[in-house]
Fold each of these.
Amino acid sequence: MSGSSISRYNSCMETSFPTLSRAQEFYNVIDANAGLGVLFAGRELNQPDHRVQTVRDHYLFHYVLSGRGTFGLGRKSWNLGPGEGFLLAPGVAGRYASDPQDPWGYCWVGFHGRDAARLLPQVGFEEGSPVLRAPFDPELARRMLGLAAILEVRAPGFSLAAEGQMLLVLADLARLAGPRAKVDMAAKTQALTWAEAAAEFIQTNHHRAIGVDAVAAYVGFHPSHLGRLFRAHYGTTVQAWLARTRIERAKLLLRTTDHPVSEVARSVGYRDYAPFEKRFKALTGRNPTDYRRGPFFT
């Protein structure tokens, strides 16, 4: 590791924070089987009135370091400043914009994994609560900037370091959330068994023309009851999980085989091409043909 790289890493781990400028984003080695996997992290001082509208297939958390801006989901919006943050969940359309007079600077992390939805309620993020409200916390700021630095420098073992740093970020979020981070462990344990059984059934049978009723019948619950257990554990609906599972498999087939797109659609459980294309574009921002032609790593 070069001296300049060490300097950049250490600058993010010390009390004084680096000066933010244009967007800088750094990427991790992707582990599809990670319990809690960091995908990327970055930092930026926004231009005034800079606006973003996005739908992701992973979790995306922003922590505000300076300035102000707004975050919105559907009809709700929040005005945020230093020390506050917002979480965008997979498959959820969100928007955020910097203040025209006092644009915010923030850092962010994208992450995924089978443990992510289980851990987020423990740090204060539940359905209807996608925002962190707290005074500016230097420790959390250091952790977030340090996460970006780890991926920027890419020293030996950086992926393990990023995973460890992400757990420390979650621990800081739990500390700041206070009472909101309390979890009913008995209810959580009960939900764990049935929610995971449903997810396993989806993973094994997503190529078939199944729906929520079939998943519910497999675990022996009414669809609405399973839906509540599933959302409590994974933070999303059974239908959304099924759709994401199918589209992720379709993405892999499009990139690794020469099967016709219509055949790919059928192989992931869509009888008709039109709903497959609509769902694919909603989750990836591109139609299947454009996705196949695009660069492999995005």
Note: The two ends are 26 Å apart (CA to CA).
Amino acid sequence: MNTMYFQHLCAANDYNGNPRRLYVLVDDNQRVAAWDEGYSGHHAVPNVWRDAAYNAERTDITTKLYYELRRTLSAYPS
């Protein structure tokens, strides 16, 4: 069964207080794409998936994992 869902992954804010949060698309239990939330909230995700991102379960992560996911996962086109 093919399951697709979003994770809202949140690391500690940076030194200046800027958020370090990602919306990650998971397909068949594999992380396949990520969007940096920045100050856009769930609007950082393309409109077609925005409702799913809005309802994503929040999970705290390390800063190291945040940077690793940003580096290794690209965003799907809008």
Note: The beta strands are 4-11, 20-27, 30-36, 57-60.
